[in-house]
Amino acid sequence: MDRRFPIEEFEAQRFREFFGDETEKLRFSLLTCGACNSNYLVENSRGEKFVCRVHKRGNPRAEKRMTKKLQGIVPVPSYLWVGENLSLIEYVEGEHFTPSKQLVREAGRVIGRLNQISFERSGEIKPTGEVMAFEGWGSIEKGLRSLLSREAVARYLSEETLSSLEELLDQHSSIFESFDHCRNLVHGDFRPDNILVRDDRIVGVIDWEFAHSGCSFMDIGNLLRHLGDDWSDDLRIGLKEEGFELPEDWRFKAALIDLASHLEFLTSERSDEFKQTCVERIRKLIQRNSERG
Questions:
Q1: 3-state SS class at 96
Q2: What is the CATH architecture of 96-292?
Q3: Which residues contact 211 (CB under 8 A, 6 or more apart)?
Q4: Are 136 and 269 in contact (CB under 8 A)?
Q5: pLDDT per residue over 232-261, tens digit each?
Q6: Regions of the chain where pLDDT drops below 50
C-alpha cells in the first residue's frame, strides 16, 4: 500500500483504558488499507473484534461526533472509545467495494444523503461540531493556484501543463466560485477501499479523517477517479434517487474539483509511481477540457 505516513506500531497499553485486564491477552494484526493512519484488527480473549487506529491525520473526537450523527443515515461503524490520537472502532465484517450496478447506485445514494447534511459555512469540522475555514485556502481557486506555484508540483508538471492549468482556472472561474458556496458534508476520501460491502450491499463507510463541510462533487470525483466514467450512469441514478440535482456537466465538475487532490498528492510523500499516475490524470483533464471547446 502506497502511504503518506509510515506504519505506527501497535502498543496495546495505549488502549488499556478501554480493554482493562484484557490488554495483555489481545491478539492483533495490521489492516493494510489506509494511507495515513495505522489500523489494526484486535481480538480479545472472548473473540470480540475491534479496529484500533493510531492517528497521524484527522481528529478522532471529531470523527466520533460525526459518525454518531450519521447513524441511521449512512452505514458507519461506531467509535467506542477515543484517546490522544487514538480511536477504537466497531469492527464491521465486509469486503472492499468492487463495482456492480447495484453497489455503484447505492454509493450514489450514500453521497446523496451526505449532501443533505449542511452547515453554516464550509471548512474543517471541529470536535465541538463548529466549522472553521481552512487555513490558507481563501477559496478553492486560490488554493489551486497556490498549489500550482509549489516547487514540488513544478518538478512533475511541465511549463506547458502548468500554463494549461492556469488557463483552465481562468476559463472555469465561475464554477470554482460556485464550489466555494457549498457547505454540505463531504467524506473527503470516498473511494472503494473506504467502502465495505457484504451480500451485495454497503455495510460500512469508514475512514472519516478527511471529512469536512464543502462540495459533494468532491466525493463524486473521488469515486469516479477510481471506477471510471463507465459507471457514471449508475452513479447518477443513485444520486438522483436521493434528490441530488445534477447539472448537465456534473461529470466535468467532479473532475475539476478532483484536480485539488491530484495537485496535493504531488506535494505529499507518496511514491513517484503514484505521482506519475496523478500527472497522467491531470493531462487527461486538460485534454477533456480542450475537447469541450
A1: strand
A2: Alpha-Beta Complex (3.90)
A3: 62, 63, 66, 125, 185, 186, 187, 188
A4: no
A5: 999 999 999 999 999 999 999 999 999 999
A6: none
